[in-house]
Every structure is written in structure tokens, then in C-alpha cells.
Amino acid sequence: MLHALYSILSQHNEHIALRIADDSHPIFKAHFPDFPLLPGFAIIDIIAEILEDDLVSIKYSKFLKSIYPNDTLECTIQHKENTRKIQIFRNKEKVSEIVYDAK
User: Fold this and answer.
1) Of 23, 24, 27, 42, which has the fewest beta carbons less than 10 angstroms from its beta carbon?
2) How far is residue 10's CA from residue 32's CA, in Å, rounded to a whole number?
């Protein structure tokens, strides 16, 4: 059985709201069993998957706060040609910012 890492709550042109899976998801068993956190690479993969982007390069990533199981996240996306700038918020507080190039 496939256990989804996230679910999309809403998605519009430059906004995505999503909920991270609970701590029973396998990724949290490895990162970390006694203090589950979403790995930074996973949030990049989630956003690229939702936007159906093929990543070419990550230009910038900054992880300001931890992302935990069951977190609800609000993501804003700016598109400029093949570059995406994503800001991720939890309770209106920025937790991450990512800039990447995609095909």
C-alpha cells in the first residue's frame, strides 16, 4: 500500500496548500525515529512533483524552521521562465525558501 507523503488541500496559479503525512510515513522512521522531521530534499521533491517540474538545478535553498508530520503548509510560487521561487509558510511564518531551475 502506498502511503502518501502529502495531500494537496488547495492549488491555484501561485499558491499551494498542503498537509504533510503523519509520523507513520516511512520517511519519518528514518529521519528521525524519535524526533520526526521532513528532510529538506523532500519538500523540494514535493513542490517539483506538484508543479510537474523536471528539476535541472537548485539555485538556492534555505530551511529556516523544521517541518513536522501533520504540518499544514502554504506555498507561494513565483515563475520566471524556467526558474521557480517558492516560499513555504506554516501559520504565516516562513519555514523555507527555494529557488530552482526546471525543464
Assistant:
1) 24
2) 28
Closest Cα to residue 86, out of 41, 35, 43?
43
pLDDT value, residue 88? 98
Would you say the pTM of this structure is higher than 0.90? yes
- Kindly list the structural domains of the chain, giving each domain's residue range(s) and its CATH number in brackets, ordered by start: 6-102 (3.10.129.10)
Residue-wise pLDDT tens digits, 14-25:
999 999 999 999
Q: Are 82 and 30 in contact (CB under 8 A)?
A: no
